Amino acid sequence: MSELLEKYDNWLKDDSDVAALVMRQWLVPVEGKDAVIFPPTYTLADTEAGERFNKGERIPGVYKGQKGPMGYNIDWFEDGTSVCQIDSVGSQANRMEPIFMREAYKELVPEVIIKAGDKEVNLLEAGHRAADAVVRFSDLREKLEEAFNAVRAGDATKLAKIAPTSLVFGVWDSRGTQVKLPRVVRSVIRAFKVRPLHRSAQYIPAIDYVGSGLLDAPGEKKQQDAMSELGLSHAPAPWSHGGVLVEQEIRRDAVLNVVALRALRAGRDADPLPLRRYILGLSLVAFTAPQETFLREGCQLVPDPDLPPEWWLVKHDGSREANFRLSGHQALEYARKVAEAFGVGPRKEATFHAEKAREELGQSKQERKKARRAKVSEVEANQ
Q: Would the pLDDT of 349 be above 80?
């Protein structure tokens, strides 16, 4: 047996004392540490903060949007500190997963392509992974239902052969079999102690269309709004979201949950080690591969050259080994070896069937719920 193949077996055996691999990485804006960055904005309609804002309360980081209050995800504390979400767990997973489409890593996972109309979707780009609507209404539905139900019965091998990244980044088949798997790799980026800013803008048309006699002056607000919408009139955008100043630090916290990994089984009598090695290999690659630095307009972050990342191997008793190091090259070398031993699933092509989606859309919410429950009960009764 190869030494490389067995390298992390002490993490993967049922009696292992390893709980997690943890990494903290400090990030800085490409413009410099004191630059303003733009977190994601969310609608606050129907939220407590949105209601307070609508009543006239000034809430830092909340702004008036076109469709109601919107703002950054910031938590404020009595001591004056704050935590701002820069990239959520789900968003980080969706950024990491497509790395397996890159030339260096694509041999590690099966390529699954779904044709939908004149578009082709790689399963690695589907937000809900193996539980995404694009595959649920495709030719792959039956095979994936079979794979999810096998997971329920204690065998994740079939899912690993079709959609192994669903095991790495977690999946919840909430609209089908109800099978839910936790994330093995979890990552999030937050900024600590922030100050929200505002910005204003004013669009000035190239020509004074009314003043030059090309268009009639608007008679009512509705006409004025239409002219602004079409770029034929001035359009002010005052006091909207202007990013945040970070007074403390921007940090990416990533965890490789070895306990969740060890929970994967390959059936009642089969050795789960090859499956666990394969998923660990993919997880280590996701952990160490160069990350996407451009999160959104106004938010491009790179590693802080003055503050190297910290790694810990955390044990069940709470002890932490701080000397663990793994390069991207070493992770890829291991991932290739264990993928070869496990056997990467074959390439698949499927077609999205709009008529199947229409059929379910034609049902009421209660009818869909009832059908799902009946199907799950039938499967559970036969397992």
A: yes
